[in-house]
Every structure is written in C-alpha cells, then in structure tokens.
Design goal:
Helix content: 55-70%
Structural class: mainly alpha
Oligomer: single chain
Strand order of the largest sheet: 1-3-2
CATH architecture of the largest domain: Orthogonal Bundle
C-alpha cells in the first residue's frame, strides 16, 4: 500500500483527531468495564462520567478550527483513498454532532448506562415491567434523535445510517421481502424431513465450566496465538471491544449446559476481533479503522457459520468437547448438534436458517416503534405473536423473549438488520475464498485473504466501494443456494 496520508490538511486533521481518539479510548474502557467487572451500583457515577465525556468530545469535535479543516479537506482533490475515507467519515460525524444538542447526547449516555444495568437485572429476574420504563425512554430518545438528524422517507432511516452508512428502511424491507419466502420454504422442507429431530441430546448435556473455558482458550490460540494483543473475558452478553490494534478484547458466556452456545459465541466474537486486529497499522488512531457494521457482522458470522460449524473444526476439537462434558461423543453427533435446524426462542442460539426470522422480528418491531405504529407496552405481545407467526413457537418467559438481547438497553436501535445483511455477505466471502482454493481449515490462509481483501482497509471504503474493489456485488442468492444445498444434504432432500 502506498503512503496513506500525505495531504497537509489531512495530516493536521489527524494530529488533532488524536485528542478525540483519546476520549473515545477512555470511553470504550469504561463501557467494557461496565459489561464485565463494574459493580451494579456503580452505574450512576459511570453514567454521569460517560455523559460528560461524550459532551466534551462533541465540543472538541466542533472546534471551529477543526471543522474548517474537515470542510477544507472535503474540497481538496488528489487525495489518497485513505484520505478520502477520513474526510468522508468525519463529515458524517460532523453532521451528527452539529444536529444533536449537547444536553441530548449527555442525557442519552446517562440513560443507556443505567438501562444496561437494569436490563441485566430484568433479564435475570424475568421481569419486563422493570425494564419497560427505560425502554420507553430509549425509544423516545431515538425517535427524537431521528428528528434532529433528519431523514427522507422514514425516521428509522436516520438510525440505520448510524450503523451502516446510507442504509435505508426501504433497502432492508426489500432484502427481508426477498429472503422471507425462500427461507420459509426451506424451513418447511426441513421440518417435514424424516431426518429432522427437534431435540438434540447435547443441548441438555451439562459441562464443566472450567473445562470449557480451557477449550475456548485453545480455540482462540489456534486462530490467533498473540495473546499480548488479545484477551477473552466473560459477560452477560458476548461482545467485542477494540481499544487499539494492540488491545482487542472479546467476551463469551457459560450456561452449565449446551456447550455449543459458548463455543459458537466465542468463534463469532473472534471474527469481530480479527477485523480489528488485522486493520492496517497506519489506520491506528484515525476515524477509519473498522466502522461498517455489515462488514463487521460478515466477519463474525463467517467465522461462526463456515468455520465453527464445519466438520473439520468439530473433528479437531472433538476430544476437548468430550473432556468438557465428561463422556465420549461421535463426530456425527456433534456435527448434527452444531448444525441442527429447529425453531427456538433465542437469536444467539439460532441455526443458519431460522436466524433471519429472529432479525426480521426485531427489525419490524424497531421500525414500528420509531414510526409510532406500536408502543413499548405492546412490544412483549407483538414479539410473542411474531415468534408464533414466523417460527411456530412462543417464548416461555420474557428472559428468552423480549429481554434476551442487550442492544436496546445500550440505545442501539437500527443495529439488528446488519446481522442478517452481514450473514449473507459472509457467504459471499466464503464462496470467493473457496473458489481461490483455500480450504476452510486453513486458518492462516483464510486470515491472510481476509486481511488483504477486507481488514487492512478498515473503513476506508463504503460497503459498495469495498465490494466493487473485490469485483463483487451484494448477491443474496449465494447464501440462499448455500443453505439449500447444505441442509438438503443433511436432511435428505434435493437442493
């Protein structure tokens, strides 16, 4: 790669931006601690600190000299791709900071920090009513944010754009409209198959947590040996945080039984971490490390589905899984367990076919809440009704229903569609990798391909630009064909 930054205006921008990066770095550490080790009663002070920190960052971002530099860079020609990426990302951020009042930003940060702690208690206690007032405020504030930010068709557009540049309600609706019937037909074929089994014995099999912790560490050691830059912790909902290219952290969870739930969560989060770990070193402390959530989720879902569910991965760790559960297992039983298709209440446990109905449900609820078509007090009933409609089941309680995800407590309205879009994009990465004769257990080869074609660019390019650079277009048929072929073979019907 040529020298990425040489324009004098952009160099001045990046020098000042390090101050903003420092504040983001500090905020990220506080958020990570909130999810891992912070005592629950620390939420109030943490929310106050983060609220004020967010306002300080806004004020620094809106410094007239810095704003003038951003606009100047936007007018300059002959920029490198990376310089154009920096300018594009900062102009986007500037539009947000100029439109959202400081008081709004501070209050939203306070709210979500407290709400995250309340959500955790509500989920553990199966008590939606405890969380409902906070969720009402979160959606009220997201609706207000959409009005501040502005939109063309739907207020939900303004929120989607915060997680994937220029993504719109219309595009997401069309995407789900195109995949809904093919996935429903495939699910019907599977459920009618004589080989289908709703119940997997390994789901109910207890495991030793310390043993499984060792398995997860072994998996990560195989994927990424440098633990001087990377670590694994435990949280109430798995997530990834990257403070820098030399400090990226993931979390997983443990539930005493159903070991695949922890293993696949670990592999999923590794996919996120790898994107950050392999981002170009020259992008460190700049606004273009890895911003696209669709690309990010394409990485996590690629590793989860094409590596973690693969027969080669299962064979490699078979003895370790046996050690965790304390009994002999067959490779076929583990493969069937990891690839069993059966409607269930939990998104993070969902198979490759039913997963998208979970996302569709959340997308529709978010959109209707933001557009004022339903109210938060109705969400639990709407959720349960849609689960029945799409998957033929209903959650047994709120903890495995409306309270299962952390995202809304953190104010992340508009995030969920990136999971499905990213999953479909992940299938396209797999197809290209396969066509380049890289086998799925060649982890070093796969990492190098992903680095050279995706990771090293960070968010230099928009998603359409990155696809064009890789001579690709978003093609949902790739994943649909893959699913039909894979599960036709597993369940004994023609693809």
């Amino acid at each position: 790669m040529s020298v990425p930054f040489k324009n004098k205006t952009v160099l001045k921008i990046l020098d000042y931006y390090k101050n903003l990066w420092t504040l983001s770095y500090t905020s990220a550490i506080a958020h990570w601690d909130l999810e891992t080790y912070m005592p629950a009663k620390g939420a109030g002070a943490r929310g106050e600190a983060l609220g004020r920190l967010s306002v300080i960052r806004q004020k620094m971002f809106l410094d007239p000299g810095f704003v003038a530099l951003i606009h100047k860079a936007g007018r300059e020609k002959n920029l490198t791709d990376q310089e154009r990426g920096v300018t594009r990302n900062l102009l986007r951020a500037l539009r947000v900071y100029e439109k959202l009042p400081s008081e709004f930003i501070e209050n939203f940060e306070r709210l979500t920090n407290t709400a995250t702690v309340v959500w955790r208690s509500a989920r553990d206690g199966n008590d939606y009513k405890l969380f409902e007032p906070y969720l009402t405020k979160i959606f009220d504030m997201n609706r207000k944010a959409a009005e501040y930010l502005g939109y063309k068709d739907s207020p939900y557009d303004a929120l989607l754009d915060q997680f994937e540049e220029d993504l719109t309600n219309r595009e997401v609706s069309e995407f789900f409209g195109e995949i809904k019937d093919p996935l429903k037909n495939l699910l019907d074929q599977i459920m009618r198959s004589e080989k289908h089994n709703n119940s997997q014995k390994l789901e109910k099999m207890a495991y030793k947590i310390e043993k499984l912790k060792a398995v997860n560490q072994k998996i990560l050691s195989l994927f990424w040996a440098d633990f001087g830059r990377f670590r694994l912790d435990v949280s109430s909902h798995p997530f990834t945080t990257s403070f820098s290219g030399n400090d990226t952290r993931i979390t997983t969870w443990y539930h005493k039984k159903d070991f695949g739930r922890s293993v696949l969560a670990t592999v999923h989060e590794f996919g996120h971490a790898l994107y950050d770990l392999q981002s170009g070193p020259s992008l460190e402390m700049t606004p273009i490390r890895s911003e696209s959530l669709v690309i990010h989720e394409s990485q996590s879902r690629f590793w989860e589905n094409f590596v973690g569910r693969s027969e080669s991965f299962i064979k490699y760790f078979k003895k370790d899984f046996e050690s965790a559960v304390g009994q002999k297992l067959s490779t076929q039983d583990i493969y069937s367990y990891f690839n069993n298709v059966s409607p269930g209440p939990l998104r993070v446990e969902a198979d490759e076919v039913t997963y998208h109905f979970h996302i569709m449900l959340r997308f529709e609820i978010e959109k209707d809440l933001i557009e004022g078509k339903i109210k938060v007090k109705d969400v639990r009933d709407v959720w349960n009704s849609k689960m029945k409609e799409y998957l033929g089941i209903a959650p047994r309680n709120d903890s495995e229903g409306v309270l299962q995800d952390i995202h809304w407590s953190g104010g992340m309205v508009g995030y969920f569609p990136t999971y499905s879009l990213g999953t479909f994009l992940g299938a396209q990465w797999e197809e290209v990798i396969k066509n380049e004769k890289l086998i799925i257990n060649n982890y070093d080869g796969i990492k190098m391909w992903l680095k050279d074609h995706i990771h090293k660019y960070g968010s230099t390019y928009t998603l359409p630009e990155l696809l064009k650079k890789n001579k690709m277009k978003f093609d949902l048929k790739v994943n649909l064909n893959y699913l039909q072929k894979k599960y036709g073979k597993i369940y004994g019907f023609k693809a």
